[in-house]
Each structure stands twice: as C-alpha cells, then as structure tokens.
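User: I want to check something. If I give you two sequences, will you return the structure for each one separately, not as a complex?

Assistant: Yes, each is folded on its own. Here is the first sequence with its structure:
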Amino acid sequence: MRLSILDQSPISAGQTAYEALNQSLKLAQAAEQFGYTRYWLTEHHDLPGIACSAPEVMISYIGAHTQRIRIGSGAVLLPHYKPYKVAEIFNMLATLFPDRIDIGIGRAPGGSAEATNALSDNFLQSVYDYPQLVDELVHFLNNAHATLKAAPIPDVSPIPWMLGTSKKSAVLAAEKGMSYAFGQFMSNVDGAPILEAYRSAFRSNVKGEKNQVLLTVSAFCADTAERAEEIALSSLIWHLQTEKGGGQYIPSIEQAKDFQLDKQDKEKLQKMKQNMVIGDPMHLKKALLDMQKQYQADEIMILTTAHSLEDRIHSYQLIADAIGVKQT
C-alpha cells in the first residue's frame, strides 16, 4: 500500500508562521526518507492556526530541498483563479522538478466570506462554472490550445487530481478522466459508495485511461495507545477552539488537557474522534489496511496535526514501518 502526507502547515503555540512553514520542509524531508509517495500542501485563507495560503510557493521551497518525493497541492481552490495562470504556475513547477508535480484541485472557498470576497469577484458563479474551469485547466496542462501555451512546457506535465467529499465531485472527476482524492478526514459520510460511484462513472465515460483513488484520513500513531491519545488531543481541542472563534495556535498537550470542557464539548470530541485513527502501530496498521480494503483505495494520505514536530514525524515513521513502506 502506498502512503502519502497531507500537510496544513499548522502553527503551534509559542511558534511563528515562519517556524511552522520550515517545519513543513523538515516533515517533507522526513517523509521522503520514510518512503512516502507524495507530499501535498493545503490552501487556506486567513484561518487561525494555519500558515499556508499559497501551496505553490511551498511546493517550490520543498522541491528545492528534496530529491524524489512527489509534491503538490491539496488543493488549489480553482474558483478563485484563472485556469491559465494556474497552468503556468504548475507547468513551471513541473519544469523545475521533473516528473514530481501533482496539481490537486478543489472548489471550496478555503476561508471566510471576507477572504473569499477579497480573492474573487464572483466566487459562486465560478463554483457553478467549475466543470468548465477544470476543462480549461486540463486543456492548458495538456498543451492542447492551438495558439496559446501555458509556458514553460515541461517534459512531463503535472498530474491533475480532483479532491472532494461528495458523489458530485467523484462523478465529475470520472467524467473528466481525472484521479480522485476523497477527503474522509473532513467528511461525516461513508466514502465507500462515493468511490464506487467514481469507479463506475470512470468506466462508463473514459476508455483506455487509468484512474487512481486516494483516501485522506486523520491519524495519530505513537509507541502506546495512551500517548497517541495525548497527541491527538491537541488537534481535537484546536478544532473546538476554532469553532468557538479562537484556535490561533495548536495547543500543547498540557494546554489541551487544561482546556475546560462542557458536556457539549465532550460530545463533539467523541464525534470527531470517530473520524480519526488513533493508536499504537499495530492498531494503525490494521485500521489503515481495513480502510484500504473497504474503500478499494490505491493509496492512503495521512493528515497528522500535532503540537510537536517530533511527535508528527515519529507518528509518520511508525506508520510507515508498520505498513512496511520501503525507506530511502
């Protein structure tokens, strides 16, 4: 089974955005060493506790300091932008880092209404036009325009992926002949029927092409189940704080333990934990292999948001070792 990483570049308590972004680089370098297939960076706008608003900048930075791991966006929020410019950016990345660039695209706003208005003149119309924007982007990535090129033209084009959490996005990806990444970590629905709808629509609409299915899950691994629970608590409390209008930083384990929880908070925590995989290496191995079988996923992408970089790196190493990923 292939493993990959999704990174939101979280800002921990006592840390600057500069430090958070450089920790993303350190994590990517560790991921390459551990044998992870790809490393994607998210796009968020004016969201507390998250440093990366421009994944294309971080892709360039990480690409310059790694050798083999695939790097990409998870995702470029296409309705904010002109497809031609996005194609230029990712063609340039693919020229600089040959056969290593993925371009994951999505249609979420990625931030508040104020941020959306600052980025886009008519976001809702662009969401409505999303299928046409996808066509235009892929058109330029394939260098298929008669007179206009998204220069520079790389020897190996960026690989497009569609990201989503619904049957609608899955079927659209299939209709466009694109690989599909399902964000289970941010969905409360069973993704298995959605991915089956993707495979069925792909077979019906695309001939002679190979599709890939990627499943993104939130996971925390440590030497003991108790320690994994402690590491996950920082992420859980951060999400609670964000809902309450705070969440400027990922709290330390000690800060998370001190957070006062009411009955409603405790119920929310339990609900969030149901959508996470938390435990020791053997538990993670069984859970991830079961999910791979259930979803028939070609690859599992893991999101681990923790206060400590060391805990994040150790979690990813334990998971890679447990699954048996070949280290480089």
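And separately, the second sequence with its own structure:
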Amino acid sequence: MADFYQNGIITTLHNLESRDIDDLESELRSFSDRRPMGLILPSLFSELEGKALPDIIDHIAKVPYLSEIVIGLDRANQDEFKHALSFFDRLPQRHRILWNDGPRLKALDEELQALGLAPKEMGKGRNVWYCMGYVLASNRVESVALHDCDILTYERSLLARLIYPVANPQFNYEFCKGFYARVADGKINGRVSRLLVTPLLRALKHAVGHNDYLEYMDSFRYPLAGEFSFRRDVLNDIRIPSDWGLEIGVLSEMHRNYSHNRLCQADIAHNYDHKHQDLSLNNDQGGLSKMSIDITKALFRKLATQGTVFNTETFRTIKATYFRIALDFIETYHNDAVMNGLKLDIDSEERAVELFAQNIMKAGSSFLDNPMETPFIPSWNRVASAKPDVLECLKNAVEADFEEFKGK
C-alpha cells in the first residue's frame, strides 16, 4: 500500500485503495466518448515468440476503452510480418502494424534520410517515433499510452492506471510517467535507476548547484520506466532520442515544452518484471554499460543547453561525488531488502557502481569530443514542414501493407 506523500515538484498519483479494475475501466469507457484512447506497442518480432507478449495481448484484448492500437514491428521479414498480422488478429480493437523493415516504410524512411530528417539508427526510439507519426496521421485518438512488450507481470490495471491521468477530461495533465517497485524473484531490480540515475542526479546537484531541471528529474520515482502516456498534441513537438537515453530524453522534452502542473507520475503496478540487460562489464557498446553512457550524456547535454559549462575537471568532480553517494545508497538498499525479506548482493551492486563511475568519465569525454552530437530525431512538426504530405504517406504505407498481406 502506497502512502500519499508528494515528493519533488511533480504531482504523484498513488495507488491508495487497489481500485477494482472493472470500476476503473467503466470510468475510462465513459471518458472515451469525449477523449478517444489509443496504445502504442514498440516490439521486436522475437517478442512475439517470447513469454511476455502473448500474455500481454491476451490482457489487452479484454480492454473495452481503446479506439486504436499501433504496433511498431522491428526485425521482421515478409513471412514474419504475415505471422505478426495473424498473431495480433486476436485483438478486437482496431489495430495496425508498422512493418518497419518492409519496402513501403523503408522507401519513406529513405526519402526522409535524403532530407536529413529520419532517425539515424535502428532501435526503440526510431520505432516509437514512427508509431507516434502514425497516431498523428490516423487522427483517431486524443490520449495515447505507450508501454514495452516484455512485461512478464502484465495486468490490465497497468494500462488503465497509466492512461487515466491524460484521459480524464477533468484533469489538465498532458503527460503521465508510470512508476512501480522493481521487485521480483525475491530481489530488488532496477540497477541503472537505483545505482546510476538517482545518485548521479544528486551528485550533479552538488556540482551544478540549485537547478530546476535537476529538481524536476529527481522528482520522478522511476525515471527509466518505459511506460508513459500523453495527449495527442504532445506528439507534434516532442523530439525522441534514438539511443538508450529515450526515457530521460522524453522527460527532458516535457520539461522544455510544458509547465510542471501539466505533468504527473502514477503508480501503475504492485509488481513489475521484464527481461534484464546484462551489465556488460567488458563491453561499453552493449547492455547496461552502453545504456549508462547514453543516459549520462543525455543529462550532460540537457544541462549544457541551460548554460552549464563542463570540462574534464568538472567530470572528475562529478564522478567522485557520484561514487560516494552511490556507495551510500547500496547500504540503504541492502537494509531495505533485509527488512522486507529480499536479497541484495552487495558485491555485484558495488561492481555496477564502479562500472557506472567509469562510464561517467567516458560519457564526459564523448561529450567534450563531440559537442555537436544530436541524437534527437526531429519533431513531426519539423518533418511535416519539409515534407507536407509525410503523415499521409506514412498512413498510406501502413494501410497498404495491411491490405496486401492480411489473410495471406
């Protein structure tokens, strides 16, 4: 049972009563008349063959208030796309699949590449960006949620609680970030958020001083959660990062575009577990190691846009401050785990902190060596100004794929 405490400068909507799902969905159905709702599912084809996504789709098939479901499908050939059409056909809601590796969407991507307006690398950011474009093009929903396809503990209540703040016509929220306790199999998870992001934000506060952005970021209970929801108009202006800094980048964009009282976070699940990335101690181009570098650079870039001056000495100070704060957090998490009968391996926690400390310096060096690096994908408003028919082209490509291959 959560408390009602409001921390930081972002409104927190708690799970105080474990509200009945039928009651919650009934209210959402009533909202849908005035504010139609949609869902974005960025997926790899391999997830269709895993354990999580089939269960997720079984749950979503019972959701009564969704007007549209948009699925972004990566790493799929023609036979796999046809299989995906059959796989998602159990959904009674209107749904469309973006076959990102198909010839039609690849041709559109090449047009945008020629204009310098397309995502530069494959990944979740690119997938989400094209899905957002299709939501704008179809113009069927006013509020939309997004969550990952590898959630092993999925319940319909997660989606209902995630979309509720931006679906309720009496609320003025443009954006909602989901949060939850990362506890599964008798241990505390969420290493990057616990051992990198939170202590790094606290270290940056020491190094940079009082800063509204850092206070804002530190207000989120789980800033790396892949679940968020937003009003449709948000999609026009938001710039999506293409690397592992996606979640941090989205939060940074919302800070740039909206006042704090238009943003919130909601407790969406009692239990949450998904596939886990390897720490990648010896490979900073993969796993949690690369993730930590991308996330750290995203924070440095944002602070630099606000006038913070970084140099090698600054990064050394940040690293030293981070290291001390993170080690103190390990003791805190260990005590929390013991009191709740959970396990926490102090040795592996300290190894992660040592890796993240090294990667803070790597991120700093990369930032200084490439100050003009811009991993953000352009906003759809910008793309539409350069190619006015882009959304219509995207919609037509998706519909043509659907019509050509459905039933085959």
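Because they were folded independently, the notes below concern the second chain alone. The chain has 16 helices and ten strands. The radius of gyration is 21 Å.
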